[in-house]
Design a protein that fits this description.
Elements lengths: L1 H23 L11 H26 L3
């Protein structure tokens, strides 16, 4: 039971770090339009950076 609660907390923290930057993009005015691939690469980097951060922190937090 303890691991289930701990897993749910880590999942919630992970989703928070992944979704918060994307939600932050909805605030503010729109910049000038750019082509699709520029927008896609920026969105991919924003979505992936919290994932990289969580992956680098998780082994230390688990005591490995």
């Amino acid at each position: 039971m303890k691991y289930t609660v701990q897993s749910m907390v880590w999942l919630a923290v992970y989703l928070l770090f992944v979704l918060l930057p994307l939600l932050a993009l909805l605030v503010g005015s729109l910049p000038p339009a750019r082509d699709f691939w520029t927008e896609f690469s920026a969105a991919s980097a924003i979505a992936a950076s919290p994932s990289w951060g969580c992956n680098s922190v998780s082994p230390r937090a688990s005591g490995m």
